[in-house]
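Hello Y.,

Per our agreement to keep a running log of every chain we model this quarter, I'm adding this entry. I've kept the format consistent with earlier entries: sequence first, then predicted structure.
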Amino acid sequence: MSQKRLGGLKLRSEAGSASQFLPQRKSSTARHSAGRLCFAAICVWLSGYVTPSAAETSASSPNGEISIQADVDPLGRPIYKVLFRGTEVIGPSRIGLRFANTPGLAEGMKIESFNRRTADTTWEQPWGERRFVRDHHNELFVRFISDKTPSHKLGVRFRIFDDGLGFRYEVPDAFADGPLSIVDELTEFRLPKGSTAWWIPGRNWRRYEYLYRTTDLTSIDRVHTPFTVRTQSGIHISIHEAALIDYAAMALDQRRPAVFKADLAPRSDGTLVKKEGAFTTPWRTIQISADAVGLLNSDLILNLNEPNALGDVSWVEPGKYIGIWWAMHIRDKTFWQRGGHHGATTAEAMRYIDFAAENGFSGVLVEGWNTGWDASRHEISTKINFTQPTSDFDIEAVAAYARSKGVRLIGHHETFGNLTNYEQQLHAALDFNARYGMRHTKTGYVSDGGSLRKTDSGGITRREWHDGQVAVNHHLMVLKEAAKRKISINPHEPVKDTGLRRTYPNAVTREGARGQEYNAWGTPPNPPEHTAILPFTRMLAGPMDFTPGIFDLMPNRKPPVSEELGRSDEDNRVQTTLAKQLALYVVIYGPIQMAADLPENYDARPGPFQFIKDVPTDWDQSMALAGEVGDFVVFVRKEKGGADWYLGALTDENERALKLPLTFLDDGMNYTAHIYRDGDNAHWDTSPYDIAIEKKAVSSTEMLNLILAPGGGAAIRFEHVEDR
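Predicted structure for the entry above:
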């Protein structure tokens, strides 16, 4: 065993020596004999003739509660299994890859070598849920080798944390001559039967934008990740992936009962992934906790990503914004100019800039500002122009007005799923945004899943999945090009988050789930339980641009301004109380947060609006205090560089009484709690506006009692005060 320091990281490495597992002898003669035996065993093992036992190729988390074991089955198929507190949570499951043009790394294999390492370090986020993140894990690297072809090797690197584990494949350069085409990834997750699952269907036309279902495992076909389950004994497990770069995203396909296999988004030619030379795959992640709250307090996904690759990112600006957006979704305005109801006009943009400046918002998003929106549905993806404003939107005047008010414009690039059209304009489009001071750009890829358009050099247009390798590489290219211009990116209809914000901190947030807009026109709208499920599923992947803060909760429906927009069902409304809309700013994390409603709706309710003006978007600390998947959740967060804490609590369709100790508050400090809670008669359906706003002196030694109404919530600012 050796111990060394590498770049400030404490490492402890163990070579895969068979001598480590031989019994110790007491006598001198026995010790010498054992030493000769050990040396012989090592020589034989290193030559490939002795395969270590499964007990040898195992590792545990630093606290010893999670353990993994790598092995091969009688057919020479690589497998692994996972235990939590001695209970098997992932049964023996296959690992491996198959290729189109060379034998796969799947059968007829044995373990050639292994080694171990321990790491314990702390790194700092430029922005995030918490400023400092501890990365403490044990690592096991196992190299499998083909019985027949010695050059065919598969490395599997396991990293085991106290909150779960990740593993990835590492394929050496000498594996094959020329490019490789992956046609199957054999990764399995054999889950405990009888578990309850919260899931959305995978590889369907609405991408990730579905309501979550709560079912037994047997009701599932194919699912997107993060995919969360609760075993019959109460253990919570979430399966996802980390560091998705130059690869296809993974859905999960239930093959045999409770056995979920990796299902990679295919390329247009039917292969899954194309690679040249040595490569590594994304990490396959398994978060494990004794309760639901433990999943929420995990940093595993971030820790499995590489450190910041952009250098100084002080130009990434967390903050809150408003925008010309909701009016189009509720059919008051149009994205296009024709018809006389265009939302993105010079006058309307200046009105929003005034509101932002008056209320402390840092940005104004303008959608529908550019030419191309008036084209037909079939032509719009080729006609959209990212540097040409419409005739009623004076970009020079609007940008100058925003600068004079200390407000930044937020760019908007809707591609309508045409990757090639966007890529051809990308440099000019980002230069345009940088010229007008836009530090954030919202991108969009509206089109059915599997319908992204990519035209090759021969002029042939092919259709790709939103989460296939082509799309993954496209989004990373956009991030890198944006970073050169000090622009952050917020994609909608995106590839799911896999923690790349650690490596590319200008990946500030994204959509990738059923957001607020479905409450304007979705059928059905999001039910009260939706935001009680998101923290335990989608939010485990990373920040979401959910667009909270709708105050118009019982709208009077009127005819749309354009028949082309269609009519909303009269049941389309936000199914929350007003207090719950405030709670979303703490519960649904994002470093940039939108106050999504119309300015006049905030002007009508200045009391509750005060919380939106006060709440930060960047934090020193964050923690979940309580919750159950789909029922309720409570988060607290401490503002970055300050002393104030904020709490958000929300529930599903059921009323809920909570007793919360305030031990998270700093000891010996006094606070004034600014409480925004459901009123005594509040109910999302019949009385959503009933809200109580009150103040109370508190400290860390006290208990807080909260009553959450059906579909309700509570938002609290704990303001530090020097004296009571």
